[in-house]
Amino acid sequence: MTCRLLCLLLLLVALPMVTEAEEPEHFGAAFSLEYVADSHENRCELHLEVDAAAEGSAVFKCTRRNWNPASYEVSRSLSQTEIGEVRVLLQKAKLFEGQYWGADARGLDFPLVTLQVSAPTVAVLVTSFNDSFDEGTRKALLNYLDQIEKSLENPQRGQR
């Protein structure tokens, strides 16, 4: 009886410590991101890699599948400002919780747009037709990724 009471007491003391443990902060160190738009006409991919030393790179690849198939790839380093902005948006977007599903409407000539992040936990989200990306921080994240993508499509455009 005393042993049971002691075990119950230990459990009651230890349980709050387990449940109140902080969720690990994602994107605090190294992370990678893959933002892909896939349609009948083309497939474009934006890859961002940031290492533990906060050095980052961006690679944009696009393959056209229509009557005149072609591919190109452009890469550049990410600035510290860009790395910081992406990191903050990723943390605020809470990609490891909430809605992650969308819809694949390629049959209706819409692209399937996905976002995969690794930090080191992996989350894969369908952003096309996903209401959680229509406004707020998740929308701001996609807008910022589009901005980086456009700077790679045309290097003459201003970079943030």
Low-pLDDT stretches are 3-23, 156-160
Strand order of the largest sheet: 4-3-2-1-5-6
Number of domains: 1
Number of helices: 3
- What string gives the helices and strands in order? HEEEEHEEH
Mean pLDDT: 82
Residues in helix, %: 25-40%
Whole-angstrom Rg: 21 Å
Q: What is the beta-strand fraction? A: 25-35%
Structural write-up:
- There is one protein chain.
- By secondary structure, the chain is an alpha+beta fold.
- Helix 2 runs antiparallel to helix 3.
- It has three helices and six strands, in the order H-E-E-E-E-H-E-E-H.
- It has one domain: Mago nashi protein (2-Layer Sandwich), CATH 3.30.1560.
- The termini are far apart.
- Strand 3 and strand 4 form a beta hairpin.
- Strands 4-3-2-1-5-6 form a six-stranded antiparallel beta sheet.
- The N terminus and C terminus are likely disordered.
Strand-helix topology:
Blueprint lengths: L1 H18 L11 E8 L3 E9 L5 E9 L5 E9 L1 H14 L18 E7 L3 E5 L9 H18 L7
Antiparallel strand pairs: 1-2, 1-5, 2-3, 3-4, 5-6
Question: Would you summarize the structure shown here?
Answer:
31% of the residues lie in helices and 29% in strands. The chain is α+β, with helices and mostly antiparallel strands and 160 residues long. The protein starts with a helix and ends in a 7-residue tail after the last helix.
List keywords for this structure.
alpha+beta, 6-stranded antiparallel sheet, 3 helices, globular, disordered N terminus, disordered C terminus
